[in-house]
Design goal:
single chain; mainly alpha; 75% helix
């Protein structure tokens, strides 16, 4: 989840990264889960590590697309207004971007936990 969220935020903020990784992302999205699982079992053996790796490799592209589209749709004008009026945590900072792009990833953050 962290890898996918990080790549998604990066791809949503930087167009050149999005253009460079888009082909690889489309390729990763089109590999069937069964093929990924079989290849992981061949490469890593019949272990739990292979199963977890297969699931992670299959789900990371989906997370990247979801977070990338969410981050790309953040209105830059609103972030500029927040910067001008010095709203704490809303001026395009890393924390506000990650919290608005991936709200379900860290639900304890909304409860006041660090």
């Amino acid at each position: 989840m962290g890898i996918g969220a990080g790549l998604g935020i990066l791809m949503g903020r930087r167009r050149w990264v999005d253009a460079g990784l888009d082909g690889l992302l489309v390729l990763a999205l089109n590999i069937p889960a069964l093929v990924t699982a079989i290849l992981c079992y061949i490469w890593l053996g019949l272990t739990e590590v292979a199963a977890v790796t297969a699931v992670a490799l299959n789900k990371i592209p989906t997370v990247v697309v979801t977070v990338r589209e969410g981050r790309a749709r953040v209105d830059q004008g609103l972030l500029d207004v927040a910067t001008v009026f010095r709203c704490p945590g809303l001026g395009g900072s890393r924390e506000s971007t990650s919290r608005s792009s991936t709200p379900t990833s860290w639900p304890p953050r909304d409860l006041g936990w660090p």
